[in-house]
Amino acid sequence: MTTTEMGGASGDLPLIDERLWERVARDFDEIGPEACMAELLDELLAHNPHYLEMAMRSARDVGDSERILSGFAMFYRILWLSARERGRPLPRITPETRDAIAALAGECGEAQFVRLATQTLLDENPGLLQMADSFASRHDDYLGIMQGFALLYKSLSAQAVIDGLGVLAQRRAPDRKGRPAK
Fold this sequence. Notes:
This protein is an all-alpha fold. The chain has helices at 18-31, 33-47, 49-62, 65-85, 95-108, 110-124, 126-136, 142-172.
């Protein structure tokens, strides 16, 4: 199975178009940011707590954590809606993946990590990068916010690849009688 057959260069992360970005923004306007955030935080707590942990830490590091967290939650919601339309779940970030991405960011240095992750996002999901850039450009700490988006995206992307490899390994595993998979 090629990376294209697995969902693209980023594993199973869906490509984002402007339509989903507009839908999430409209939901925030019509339903209200408090109600949307409550629903998103419940979703994240139940289904992707390590994403939530990373998003909260990144928002706290930047300051104005409620507003910044709403951007990270919208980012997740856009990806979640696109994945749902394709009948696939978003990856659930594991502690191991979270720690590996954080270590990589530490080894590269923040600015280099953001540069590399932003280039990856541009190559794999330009619509999502446009959303992140638009959100971050309205705030004082552009680099800090983009670092948060980059960290979150790379964590989801890495987890998608890891999960995809696990599925491939299961498909190639011998059956109960030790015969090679077909």
